[in-house]
Amino acid sequence: MSQVVLEKIVKxxxxxxxxxxxxxxxxxxxFVVLVGPSGCGxxxxxxxxxxxxxxSGGKLYIGDKVVNDVAPKDRDVAMVFQNYAxxxxxxxxxxxxxxLRIRKxxxxxxKRTVAEVAEILSLTxxxxxxxxxxxxxxxxxxxxxxxxxxxxEVFLFDEPLSNxxxxxxxxxxxxxxxxHKRLGVTSVYVTHDQVEAMTLADRIVVMSQGRxxxxxxxxxxxxxxxxxxxxxxxxxxxxxxxxxxxxxSKDGPAAQLSETVQIxxxxxxxxxxxxxQSVIIGIRPEDVLLEANESLPTVPLEINLIEPLGSEALxxxxxxxxxxxxxxxxxxxxxxxxxxxxFYVNVDRVKVFDEKSGLALYRPDQKRG
Length: 369
Ligand SMILES: Nc1ncnc2c1ncn2[C@@H]1O[C@H](COP(=O)(O)OP(=O)(O)OP(=O)(O)O)[C@@H](O)[C@H]1O
Ligand SMILES: [Mg+2]
Hints:
By secondary structure, the protein is α+β, with helices and mostly antiparallel strands. Helices cover 24% and strands 33% of the residues.
């Protein structure tokens, strides 16, 4: 298998840059997910790797070869798109075999390969059917089959699940993960869905406006977002962000949220904070307690909406004039949540960002100067 290396990759249309010099190494056999809001440059980046889009600047390596000027068909990559682009007049067998026929692979060899791939993807009973007679999930599997039979060095996926309903998406997500475990092919996967990114990725690349905001394992990004953008993108719902000022307290640096509310900072977060600094405090919806707890700081809230999800509920509230979401267990009843007027902060999990730059004060992956 091959690694994929992007070195200062730029894409411009005329004099508009849409990808601004991206550096990224996808290790051999790694599953990397590019995630970010619409228009941030995910597909453009993927299409440059596939060779479907010309690279305006920088170097792209597949394996140890620079492939900027190598034609898509010679790059040994296989791409799966959102609209599966199956041939409607060919049955499942012929759709999967198509690429092999083009490359004049031996007939018996094609038969064997298609049978094997159909088995992996549970398509064996459907080989005679036309795409029109398949469900969305089955079509998606045929599209994957077409990519797999080629035994490529690299798989590229562009939102392959977004045409499927929620249940099927969860199911196919698990299948893609199993498939990757089994085949171990280097994969780059694009989605705007952070849950998909969290569940599939070895490492996630969070992009915004043609730049990389952070690269890390799902848990690294969840536990230590590098900046407010990542904090507001990863997690569902994402991290709450409240304005505060750093003050000195008997327990070291604390965040003053309002006249009456002060939250002590975890030691590591506090080290990077300066007294008087304007900051944004990040509190995950899961990191609050509703049962009285004397050892933790108390924050008053005003509830404006409760969304029951079954075992859990989301409480939409206002804290210090800013929106705040809490995720809590319901224990089978949401009525009691209506009476809540305050919560307790799990102090150890609080994050701090500089208000001006938006950068996290504590960055375990960066050496302090
Ligand atoms: N041919 C083009 N000419 C000019 N700008 C383009 C062209 N193609 C794409 N862009 C711009 O490049 C940017 C990145 O587009 P891209 O398709 O990579 O976004 P994306 O992250 O895949 O978004 P989505 O989640 O909506 O698919 C967008 O702002 C888009 O408008
Ligand atoms: Mg796209």
